[in-house]
């Protein structure tokens, strides 16, 4: 997995980098097929915003959050990304299960003949 962390009008310190990595690891626990993660942190006056794009096989997942501080925004971002990745994984499993059921019924029809 490639992880790119950038800051727009904010210095990306080692503490921020470590915090983002720890939160992204939670997403990797749910879904192993994460190819690329881009995280952009920005500060504009009192708005502190974090955006992330996750490239998984077959889909691009995007989330953006604002918070009182960057750590709160990163927490909220991780929650949103986690929900979207789990939803994507469930859709893949349902699609795979439907295909498996279809193949199984085709085999049973052939055996009946």
Quick gist of this model?
This protein is an alpha+beta fold and 113 residues long. The protein has two helices and four strands, in the order βαβββα. The chain starts with a strand and ends with a helix.
Which key phrases capture this entry?
4-stranded mixed beta sheet, 2 helices, about 55% helix, elongated
Structure in words:
It is a single chain. This protein is of the alpha+beta class and 113 residues long. It contains two helices and four strands. The protein has helices at residues 14-30, 70-112; strands at 2-8, 34-44, 47-56, 59-67. Strands 1-2-3-4 form a four-stranded mixed β-sheet, covered by helices on one side. Helix 1 (14-30) packs parallel to helix 2. The model has no long low-confidence stretch (mean pLDDT 85).
Structural class: alpha+beta
Percent of residues in helical segments? 40-55%
Order of helices and strands: EHEEEH
Our Rg estimate from Cα atoms comes to 19 Å
List low-pLDDT spans.
none
The profile of the biggest β sheet is: 4 strands, mixed
Distance between the termini: 49 Å
Total number of β-strand segments?
Answer: 4
Which descriptor suits the 3D outline? elongated
Strand content: 25-35%
Walk across the major sheet and give the strand order.
Answer: 1-2-3-4
Output the number of helix runs: 2
Averaging pLDDT over every residue, what do you get? 85
């Amino acid at each position: 997995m490639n992880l790119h962390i950038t800051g727009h009008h904010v210095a990306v310190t080692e503490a921020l980098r470590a915090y983002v990595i720890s939160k992204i690891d939670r997403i990797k626990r749910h879904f192993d097929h994460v190819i690329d993660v881009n995280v952009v942190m920005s500060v504009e006056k009192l708005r502190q915003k974090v955006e992330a794009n996750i490239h998984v096989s077959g889909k691009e997942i995007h989330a953006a959050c604002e918070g009182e501080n960057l750590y709160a925004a990163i927490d909220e971002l991780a929650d949103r990304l986690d929900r979207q990745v789990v939803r994507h994984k469930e859709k893949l499993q349902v699609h795979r299960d439907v295909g498996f059921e279809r193949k199984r019924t085709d085999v049973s029809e052939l055996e009946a003949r």
